[in-house]
Structure formats: structure tokens, C-alpha cells
């Protein structure tokens, strides 16, 4: 079996685009050096989705469910998108309207990691350089906003970040 990643097992687990969590097979664990970095149990995607559903259901407040789901997105994109698409009626209101409005307002308290770029008017002569700072070269979609009047909340200034990223997540799900 040929190795398709040039990253170490540790790096794979920290790349949300590559991480499959407990979904890595024993052969993949051998190939990528993942033994000892994951629990021994190999789980199919349905078992992982079941586990995510159980964890989400332990939270009472939608904002806490939102934070959990965004943390999942930051760790394992495949599992995040499969979970959302498995039950869109349950999850769309949590990752988008109405919960994303509260998430935008609490942006400074729930921010975990960058998932996009900020380009301010002060940067108008450095846009190319800023775009080159993004580590993903194969960009398929972008969402651009000035942060004004999002969700009827008024000018969110730099707190629009969550809104744009969740809109991008919805576009990505519709694409698949």
C-alpha cells in the first residue's frame, strides 16, 4: 500500500482536512505511524456520527452546541460535514441562523483558531501578500463581507467572522 501523505501521523491528526480520528483503519495506522496516537478501536463514520450526536445532546444551550461543532470542524472536517448532512434539520439552526448571531456577538469568547483572513481597508495595498499567507492553495469558495448589517445585528465590525465561515460551511455542504 502506497503512502498518500507526506506528513507524520501527528501532523495528519492535527490537519482537519486529513484527520479521520478513530476512522483510520489498522493499515492506515501502520502506514502513517498513528498507533498510540489514537484509541485502539476503529470506528466507521456512522459510529463516529452517533458519538458526536450523543455529545451534542449533552449540551443544553445552542451556543455550547455551536462551540462543540466548530471544534469538531477544526479537528475533523469530514466528520463535521457528514454529521451535519446526516441531520440538517437538527444542525443547521445550530451552525447557522439563529445560533450564529449569538456566536458572532460572543466571537472574542469562543474563537478557537483562524479559519479565514481579515483584510482591512488599511491593507488595500497589501492584498496579494495577505492572500499568500493562507496555507491552502486550492480554494474553491470564498465569502466576503464588510461586516455591516449581518443577520439584522447591525455593524459587527470584526465579529462577522463566524457568520462568513458558517455560510461557507453551508455552501460546502451544498456542493457535496
What does this structure look like?
With about 180 residues, the chain is an all-alpha fold. It has 2 domains: about 1-45, Hemocyanin, N-terminal domain, CATH 1.20.1370; about 60-175, Malic enzyme, N-terminal domain (Rossmann fold, 3-Layer(aba) Sandwich). The chain has 10 helices and no strands. The protein has helices at about 10-15, 25-30, 45-55, 60-75, 75-85, 90-95, 100-105, 105-110, 125-130, 160-175. The chain is globular, with a radius of gyration of 18 Å. The two termini are about 30 Å apart. The mean pLDDT is about 80.
Topology:
Layout: H1 9-13, H2 26-32, H3 45-57, H4 62-75, H5 77-86, H6 88-95, H7 99-105, H8 107-110, H9 127-132, H10 161-175
Helix pairs in contact: 3-5, 4-5, 4-7, 5-6, 7-10
Quick recap:
The chain is mainly α. The protein is 51% helix and 0% strand.
Question: How much β-strand is present in the residues?
Answer: under 5%
What average pLDDT do the residues reach? 82
Largest sheet: none
Radius of gyration: 18 Å
Give me the oligomer status.
single chain
Number of helices: 10
- Identify low-pLDDT runs: none
Helix content: 40-55%
CATH architecture of the largest domain: 3-Layer(aba) Sandwich
Order of helices and strands: HHHHHHHHHH
CATH superfamily of the largest domain: Malic enzyme, N-terminal domain
Shape: globular
Q: Count of DSSP E strands? A: 0
**Structural class assignment:** mainly alpha
Q: What is the CATH C level class of the largest domain, in words?
A: Alpha Beta
Amino acid at each position: 500500500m502506497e503512502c498518500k501523505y507526506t506528513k507524520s501521523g501527528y501532523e495528519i491528526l492535527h490537519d482537519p482536512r486529513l484527520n479521520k480520528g478513530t476512522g483510520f483503519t489498522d493499515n492506515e495506522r501502520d502506514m502513517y505511524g498513528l498507533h498510540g496516537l489514537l484509541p485502539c478501536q476503529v470506528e466507521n463514520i456512522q459510529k463516529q456520527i452517533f458519538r458526536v450526536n450523543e455529545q451534542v445532546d449533552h449540551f443544553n444551550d445552542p451556543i455550547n452546541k455551536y462551540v462543540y461543532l466548530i471544534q469538531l470542524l477544526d479537528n475533523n472536517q469530514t466528520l463535521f460535514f457528514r454529521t451535519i448532512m446526516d441531520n440538517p434539520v437538527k444542525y443547521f439552526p445550530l451552525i447557522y441562523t439563529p445560533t450564529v448571531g449569538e456566536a458572532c456577538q460572543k466571537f472574542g469568547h469562543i474563537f478557537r483558531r483562524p479559519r479565514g483572513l481579515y483584510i482591512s481597508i488599511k491593507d488595500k495595498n497589501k492584498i496579494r501578500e495577505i492572500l499568500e499567507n493562507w496555507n491552502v492553495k486550492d480554494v474553491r469558495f470564498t465569502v466576503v463581507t464588510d461586516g455591516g448589517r449581518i443577520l439584522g445585528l447591525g455593524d459587527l465590525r470584526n465579529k462577522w467572522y463566524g457568520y462568513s465561515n458558517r455560510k461557507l460551511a453551508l455552501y460546502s455542504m451544498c456542493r457535496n
